[in-house]
Amino acid sequence: MESIFYRTNPDCHPGPLDIKFAYNMSLLKIISQNPNLQPGGHSRPKYCTALQKIAIIIPFRNRESHLRTWLYYMHPFLQQQQADYGVYVVEQTEDTLFNRAKLMNVGYSVAIKDYNYTCFIFTDVDIIPMDGRNLFRCSDNPRHMANSVDKFNFKLPYNDIFGGIVAFTKEQFIKVNGFSNVFWGWGGEDDELFQRVVAMGMKVERPDQTIARSKMISHKRDPGNESTGKSFHLIKKAHERLHKDGLNSLIYTIISITSHKLYTKITVDIGNGEDASSTEGILNLFNL
Ligand code: UD2
Ligand code: MN
Q: Which of 124, 148, 231 to mutate to test the pocket of ligand 1 (most atoms within 8 A of CB)?
């Protein structure tokens, strides 16, 4: 089967894409459609040197069919954009409350040792851009790239929204000390990151809303990702906590790092919120 993009002219962006979710894509088919990928889900343009080296970080647990859909669309999309990139799927071990933000920090910390990445794109596994002109790149300020999602009628549901897909240069991500590690369960970690960006004197950039149109796979809330109701309180204190809670307080144990054909899988034990980088721990430690 031919890929979703025409490959004959690499300078030509395909514009709007026809994204249809189908859940029976086999990994073998996706592999055969992306013959130029290097092990671990890496690719770089053949005829030029890319200005940015991009690590794509995906937080993950029990979303195999979503991941296959993401890989099916996004590998051709990124190669069409002449990206020098690698894909990192950061899988949290079972039986603990999900912590999307901490997984992002782990993905950054592992990827930075793997290659000289300059740009980090943190994305949910269930959002697919609908236009090839939506360049997956970093900019002078952190970028919020899920600003035109079908679920929200292609509008911003509120001004400070920073979920779904964000892009940071290495310097920008270090400046905000990464994500907070203390957001266990669903919600708030994205808004908290927005507050970090503002606190460090940066602005949030967003792509044009026509070009940024994206489709979200509809799903129910996952078991193990329940909301704890603590987010609101934590977001308010973002500026006080940001220098102590983030990349510089990250504690984790790598279970395995596996190089698949389509991605690098990092399986990690990030604890359960009871160590020093947990919610209660950090609040008590720093009296916040
Ligand atoms: C919104 C945000 C998302 C995040 C979340 C709150 C947008 C478009 N999306 O998405 O970025 O801020 O709210 O936490 O603004 N995941 C797993 N397994 C799980 C649970 C989560 O793989 O059991 C991963 C997966 O990549 C998923 C992401 O975490 O896409 C976010 O979780 P969600 O899809 O349940 O959150 P959602 O859709 O409410
Ligand atoms: Mn989702």
A: 124
Count of structural domains within the chain: 1
Q: Which structural domain, as residue segments, surrounds residue 28?
A: 2-285
C-alpha 170/C-alpha 55 separation (Å) is 10
- Residue 277's region, left for phi above 0, alpha for psi from -120 to 50, else beta, is alpha
Q: What is the pTM of this model?
A: 0.94
Q: Is the pLDDT of residue 274 over 90?
A: no
Q: What residues contact 183, with CB distance under 8 A and at least 6 apart?
A: 99, 100, 101, 102, 189, 192, 231, 234, 279
Q: Which of 190, 191, 192, 245 is catalytic?
A: 190
Provide the CATH number for the domain around residue 97.
3.90.550.10
pLDDT tens-place string over residues 172-215: 999 999 999 999 999 999 999 999 999 999 999 999 999 999 99
For ligand 2, an ion, list residues with CB under 5 A: 126
Residue 216 Cα, ligand 2 centroid: separation in angstroms? 7
Q: How far is the CA of 270 from the centre of ligand 1 (A)?
A: 17
Instruction: Please name which ligand lies nearest the alpha carbon of 146.
Output: 1
Write the pLDDT tens digit of every residue in 52-79: 999 999 999 999 999 999 999 999 999 9
